[in-house]
Amino acid sequence: MDFASLFPDLKPWVQSLAKTDFVTFIKGSSWIFPGLLVFHLLGLVTVGGAILLPGLRLMGVGMTTESPASIEKTVRPWLWVGLILLVISGVIMGMVNPMRLYTRPAFFVKVIALIPALILSFGVIRSIASHDGAFSRNAKIMAGVALALWLAAVIIFGTAYGAAPGAFHVICAGWLIVMAFGARMTRIVLGAITAVTVIGVGIVTYGFFPPLEQYDTFMEINRWTLRIFAVLVAGFALWEFSRASKTEGAPPRLNRLAGLLTIMAWFTVAAAGRWIGLGGGAS
Amino acid sequence: MFHDLLQWLQDVPGATDGDPSTSWSQQFAGSLHLWALTEGTHVLSLILFAGTILMVDLRMLGVVFKHVPYSTLNNKILPLTVAGFVIAVVSGVMLFLSNPVHYYHSVFFRAKMIFFFLAAANIFWFHYRVQKNIAEWDALEKPPLPVKLSAMVSLTSWILVILFGRLMALSFFECESMPRGTFGYVFAECEPVMREVEELERQAAEEEAKAAAEQDAAPADDAAPEATPDADSKPAEPAQPPKEPPPKEPPTPERKD
Question: Which of A124, A222, A249, B94 has the fewest CB atoms lying closer than 10 Å?
C-alpha cells in the first residue's frame, strides 16, 4: 500500500514539487542535502531521548524516582526541538524526491505510524502525566485508536513489497524491551525460544534449502519464522507488562502498556523511514 | 598502514578457489537484505544510544532534570546508553568489514574515528577523574566546570561522530575525485588506492592495445575469436553453479540516499 495507489490524482502535484525554484536551489548545492540528512538524524536522536524517558517511566522502569509528570514536562521542549528538526529536514528532503515518497510503501507506513505516535505522546502520555498517573476515559479512547492504527501500520510494514524486511527492526525493539525489563523467568524462556529458533532455522535453511540454490523456499521459511516470532514477542510483551506487578509502587497495567506502545509507535516511524531510501514500490 | 591487511580481509577469508567475490566480506556487502538490515540497526541504535546520552549530558550541563541527582541518571539511564552503544559498535564493525578498504580510505570515516576516540577518552577522563568527587556535586543544579566541560566534549564529539557517519554513506570526497596533494587526499592516504587504480587503467590500456594489434594482424576476419578481456582467467569449469545468489532484486542495496 502506498500513496500513489491510494491517491492517483495527486500525481501531477507531487511531480510539480520537484520542479519548484526552491528544489532547484537545494539541488544546486552539494552541501545542503547532506546537511539535511544530518539534521534529520540529530532530530531522530533528540526525539529518541525525549520519547524513551517518559515512555519507560510509564512502564515503571528507568527514572522511577521521578514522577511521570515531572519527566514528561522536562523532556517536552526537547521533543519539540527534535520534531521541528525532523519535520523541516524531512519536508525539504521529501520535496527534492517527492515521487519516492509518493510511491514507496515505507513512507506510507511511516505516516500511518506517525499518527498514533503523536496521539500517544501529546494526548495519552500527557493526560496520564497531568492526572497524576490516572488513565482518563478520553485517554483510553485515544490509546485504543492509537493501538489500532499502530497495528495497521505494522501489518502493512511487514507485508509491503520492498519495505517488509524493515519490520524485523520493530520485532527486535519489542524483543529488546522484554529482554531488558521483563521478569527473570520471562527472559529465560524468551531467550531460550530465541536461541532455539535462530539455531533451528539456521540449520534447516542453510542445511536443506541453501539460499544460492533454493532461494524462494529459503526466503519463505525466514518470512514465516519472523511472522510467528513477531506474534510470540507481542504475546510475551503483552503478558509481561499487563499482569499485576508484585513490586511496590509499580504503575497500573494500562499505564505500562501505554508507555510500551508509545515507544513502539515512534520506533516504527523511525524504522519505516529507514526503508524509504532502500526500495520497494514502483519508482 | 592497514591497507594491505584490510584488502586481505576483504578478499581472502571465506573465499573459495581464491575468488575474492566469494569472501565473507564481499558476500555480506552484496547480500540482498542482511547488509541493509545491519545498516538499519546501526542507525536505529542511535535512538537508544545517542538519545539517552543526550539527556545525561544535558543533566550534567544543568539544563534538564536540575532537581534530580546526577547519580539517578547515571544508575537508571546510562545502562541503556551502554546497551545502545554495544549494538551500534557491533553493527558498525560489521558494516566496516563489508567494505573495509573503501571505508579505511574515506575522509569521513577517519574524521568519525577521531571524534569517536575523543569521546572515548572523555568517558575515561570523566569516569576516573571527574566522577571521583561525585558526592560534592551530585545534587547540584549546576555542576562544576569539569563536569560541564566533560558533557560539552561528549555532546560535541557524538554530534560530529553522527555527522561524519552520515556523510560516510554518501559518495563525495572519495579518493578518485580529490586532486593529488589536497588535504583530503593526504588525510585519507589515497596514494595506494590511486596507484592501484592507475595500475588497473594501465593494464586495461595495454590489453586494448594488444587486442587492437591482433585485430590489425588479422584484418577483415569476422570469425576471429574475441580477445579475452582477462588474461589471467582460467578456462570456465563446466557444471559449476553460479556463485552469486539469483538476482531477484538489485543484488547490492542502494547505498546513496
Answer: A249
